[in-house]
Amino acid sequence: MASYKTNEFKGGLKILLDGDPYSIVENEFVKPGKGQAFSRVKIKNLKTGRVVERTFKSGDSVEAADVLDTDLQYLYNDGELWHFMHPETFEQLTADETAIGEAAKWIREQDICAVTLYNGQPLSVEAPNFVVLKITETDPGLKGDTSGGGGKPATLETGAVVSVPLFVQIDELIKVDTRTGSYVSRAKEE
Amino acid sequence: MSADSIVADWRPSATLEVLAARARMLAQIRAFFLERQVMEVETPLLSRHGVTDPALESLRLERAGIGGARWLHTSPEFPMKRLLAAGSGPIFQICKVFRDDERGRRHHPEFTLLEWYRPGLAMHALMDEVAALVRCVLHRQDLAMQRIAYRDLFCSRLGLDPWSASPDARREAAIRRQVPGAAMLDLDADGWLDLLLSHCLEPGLGQDAMSFVYDYPPSQAALARIRDDARPVAERFELYINGMELANGFQELTDAAEQRRRFERDLDDRRGRSQAPVPMDEPFLSALAAGMPETTGVALGLDRLLMIAVGATQIDQVLAFPVERA
User: Fold this and answer.
1) ipTM for this model
2) Which residues of chain B make contact with A53, given a CB cutoff of 8 A?
3) What is the CATH number of domain B3-140+280-325?
4) Of A131, B86, B286, B321, whose CB count within 10 A is highest?
């Protein structure tokens, strides 16, 4: 099994601790005038997203986590699992509810998603930062209101609900920022 | 690498104002020692011997043109002591030193050290001289000076006696002070003290003052003489300003046999930790055997002193070209 020494620590490095994969967020080298040196790291648990701190003795080794970031194409949801395909090898992988997380609200079949694989299996899925989706349900707004002063809820084709300006209508396409879940603009078919 | 970062890479990481402050600092230090009749010396950076201390890793070069294996020094201590034994009298040196595997906000694998020796001067008098030099470089004649014994520091701040506390008590103190991951660390007795000092005590030392910590546990003597009090102490001190360690000094060990035992113990430790062996400095041991005068000595990191002088938070702000763009 591959491992890293503390002098290889840097942001983004993926390590295995207590059976969980972590990504190093920040590494600080701490050493008294003479004597034992330490690496004080901030690490993010890739399963839970929690950031914790740990202290390592300089020279210690930590097991590398088999974590890989890759782009996969979303195929379909079978009611329980989300199916993805590697665009070049055509290998198919499935993500469960934990791995898909918030991304489930935004992705459409055929979309390319950034997927983090752990031991070859999807650990987390990120929707593209911006998606274009069709409105399937919203109250008819007031005619002629183009000020965007007010807002109303709109249900999108993926089931997500976002707040949109009053002038936006059913069957229109809108652009959404998936990081904040907010409406950006009306959009045209790509 | 993008075109932008290639363009950025040729530029110094320190501002020209900081580099000018560095030049002034070097001139001030030379004037300080000239006035006190301490002679400036130069000794080799490349040596046939390395440093045995397991906490220091020397960089090694092996080329036929320089006669085989050579080590870049981690401090000029051994050859400077050979000069003392040869009768040099008080001496100082400003030089680059090299330490492998040390890189961080306050660490750089190559840095500038000021080291000086004062035959006949007692340890507390040398601390006074260090304080005078720092006040001179920082233009802060009002900068307060504090002294605290290592044991008093641990007893008062952590409720832990470093001479008698069990390894478990040391670990518990680190857990109580919420050092992250302390429960999982596997350290020896001195490792725990180093952890507590660097993580829990150092950040609070020397707040807008010079804090001198002195009289270390004998297990941390390094090259200091051990004073045989009822509770033996290593006659060693460190200076801290704004939570940063700046200098380390000793009442120097002059006993050649004891020095050889310490080197051998270091080499045993290195073997136990699978660290590279290094040849101990025999000419230095011969100099001690021939007779080195009773002396104190201190090494002070000039990059860090400059950080304080210009208010920098990262060592890269005071270096023209850090290692990544050297």
Assistant:
1) 0.89
2) 180-181
3) 3.30.930.10
4) A131
